[in-house]
Write a structure and sequence with these properties.
2 helices, about 30% strand, 60s Ribosomal Protein L30, Chain: A, globular, six-stranded mixed β-sheet
Length: about 130
């Protein structure tokens, strides 16, 4: 089996070595982004209870990660949304349009009983394909 080069992407943020995963991983021209919640740089949930603002923060983090890899949110081809409530979930579509700018990815939404991160209303993972 061929071993592909793997590059961890942290987007310039400090990433504790004790974690058993990375925020994003580049393999060839693919970037796999771990499930991400709407936390700020101090690892606090932004806008507790506000799924729209948490979604916006998640996509800001995706943009930072993808920029570090030479891409942008427009390179995302798949997302999976894990949500704890359907209240205002439809409003997150406007946030997606802000970041995707017409380059919509495939997407799956999953309603869950809870997320590991207290206060998180949504967690999103993604896959992006970069040029060359």
């Amino acid at each position: 089996m061929t071993q592909h080069a793997r590059e961890a992407i942290t987007g310039g943020t400090a990433w504790p070595a004790r974690y058993t995963y990375v925020p994003a991983l580049r393999v060839g021209n693919l970037v796999f982004i771990s499930g991400t919640t709407g936390t700020d740089d101090d690892n606090r949930i932004v806008a507790p209870g506000d799924i729209v603002e948490q979604t916006r923060q998640i996509f800001r983090k995706f943009e930072r990660l993808l920029k570090a890899a030479g891409g942008s949110c427009q390179d995302i081809v798949q997302t999976v949304d894990y949500i704890t409530t359907t209240e205002n979930y439809k409003a997150t579509a406007a946030v997606r349009r802000e970041f995707f700018k017409g380059a919509q990815p495939t997407s799956t939404g999953v309603l869950v009983a809870g997320l590991l991160r207290d206060g998180a209303a949504i967690e999103i993972s993604a896959v992006a394909v970069l040029e060359g």
